[in-house]
Each structure stands twice: as structure tokens, then as C-alpha cells.
Amino acid sequence: MLKLKQVSKNFGGLPALSDVTFTVPKGQLTALIGPNGAGKSTMINCMTGVFEPSSGQIEFQQQQIESLPAYKISRMGISRTFQNLKIFPRLTVLENVLTGLTSDGGDSMLLAMLRLPSLRHRERQLKLRAMVALDRFDLAEKANWPAGILAYGDKKRVELARATVGNPQLILLDEPVAGLNAEETAAVGEQLHLLRSAGHTMLLVEHDMALVMEIADQVVVLDSGKCIAIGTPDEVRCNPLVLEAYLGRMDATA
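RE: above sequence
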């Protein structure tokens, strides 16, 4: 589904990523882990057109995307959530999720002005899809609430609903359970299980190692911008480099 070849990204001469190479298999959940500052969010930003890599190639379904703008990458079927919440607080919960369907809404100004029956039918279909996504994350009852008044955990789930509403080919999840309590984390983990079972391909950036080890098919480990290990959860758990660079430090400070 996604292939990275020697991807590097420098900021002012300082390397944030250095020759990172790995693949994201279709229909699987790949976890990208590492200490703070390892380059995980920078990698997602390079995949989605927020940053252009300094060197290397990123292929999505055999098409190179490393130099494409973000909107074109999105239209190709890649969606994402953000480490820091990116919602529209004055829009309703439903309207926030509908923004994940903008590429399906048409772009004709004339049709929008005439309000033809075909356009109204399309809008009803999009709202139905958005409500299905909200129901998946137990937010349907809050569809008409202003998103800005939601609790933090609900806001995270709004982002998840928006990222999945368009049935994207690849979903990039940047710390989706950060700040959630144990019950909320378990609920999100169950939804990720269901999405994977339905055939969705996902790349998960997360610090919750219990969640990662439970649901990931493949784990990629970054440290100081370099890829130090790739394997199954069991293989990564026993890797000495990972234990030293990440898991051991986490256990020591938990």
C-alpha cells in the first residue's frame, strides 16, 4: 500500500529523519513507535504533503507522492488524524465529520446555487454516511452539538470519525488515544480492531505500548530519526536495540 525508500528530512541542517525505509502492507495495521523526538509525526507529515522530504521516495499504490501537495494526496485516498487536535470548534460535530467528505461533495458553484434535487439527494447521502461514522464512535447523539464544547476524549473520537468517514485507502493515526482514560482507550482499540477486520490499512503512531502490542501486525521503531527495528510485536519486544532505545526508557519512567 505504502512504500518508503531512504526518506530523509532536514530542518535548518538538522536531520529529523535519516534514510528511513519501510513498507505498509495492505489490509494490516502498522505501528510506528519511538521516543519523543524520534521523528514519528515528521514522518506522517511527509506522507501527507505537509512537509516535502529532503531526499528519498514515498510511493502510494505504486505512485510517487513525496512532492505532491496535501490536497492531492488526500484525494488519492489517504486520511489522517493529528497529534494536536484539529477540529472546527464552532461547527457542529456532524459538520466536522462532513469535512472529511469534501472530495465527494462536488465542486460546481452553479449546482450549489441552483440547489437542484440531485444536489440535495447527494447532501442527504453524505449526511447519512457521516451519521454512520458518528454512530461507530458513539457520537451520534451529539451530532448537533458544537464541537468546541465536547470533552477532550469526544474530540479525539470526532477526529477518528472524520478520518474514516470517506472509506480511505490508508488511514494515518497520530496518537489517537493520547490523553484518553483506560475505558476510552479500550473503546478506541476495539474500533481499530473492527476497522482492520473490515480490510482497512492503517499506520498508527502511538505511545501506549499495551495497545500497540495488542493490535499491530507490524511494528516499525524510530530512534533519533533512524529506523532501528521492523518486525512483529513479539520480535520488536525482544529486540535489544528497541529495549535500550525506547521500551527500556519507557519502563524506567512509567
